[in-house]
Please model this.
Amino acid sequence: METKIVETNKLVPFKNREYYFDDIEGEKWESFKESIKTNGVINPVIITASNLIISGHQRVKACLELRIDKIEAVICDDVKSHDDLLLYYIETNLKQRGTGNPNPIKMGRCIQELERLYGIYHGNHMSNTKKKSKISADTPANQTELANRMGVSVDTLQNYKKLAKMPEIEDAIKHGIITPSFALKYLSKLSKDEREKIINIKKNNYNFYNNIENNIVAISDDELQKKYRNDIINAKRELLKICSKYPHIKELGNIRTMINRL
Model:
């Protein structure tokens, strides 16, 4: 593969890339930019002959913000189809990020696509549409080999895929409203509407307690009770409905207990 210097503003982002990977944000993003500013781009980005970015979106984005107008790029010339491009994109980005994909929902989507592209179906059974790995001489032939390649257990691999089937919980996990383990244990067997109801209850209570913590010094308890009276009433009403339907979910009972103390 050829390596050359290209103009940063001519590079084109991979379509739907946010569906599979998050951008770096907040303090981590500022630190990343500072590293680029101080040390430059150490590893070249990977692009197609038509300037489509396969790996290096964060590096290109940082260069654009820092007004670095040129960047070293490796030109990938063996991409023949959309599936070739998608496989190269997922494999290189999982490898480049070191820890894989920190977003568990998006990690599940990556795994689903890798299984489809490698031709892995139903554990160890292979399809006839298998594609070879773009970054390794050995292509995983089954879930066990794929899990080993990714450094996780088969159970963890399957759990990621279960999370990917619940896209409505992504924001709740991202903002700490629920954990992946809570979703797997309590939400995976419920309907989408039921999951959204439980998430909304947890979100309302999460916001309620955060507001108390943020404002406890500034306002009195009486003012808090008045300000959140309707929230408390509505939360109690919804909790009674949900908790009576799902008495086995211990955490809902814990939330109900906290609300009843107010």
About this structure: The chain has twelve helices and six strands. The longest helix spans residues 192-215.
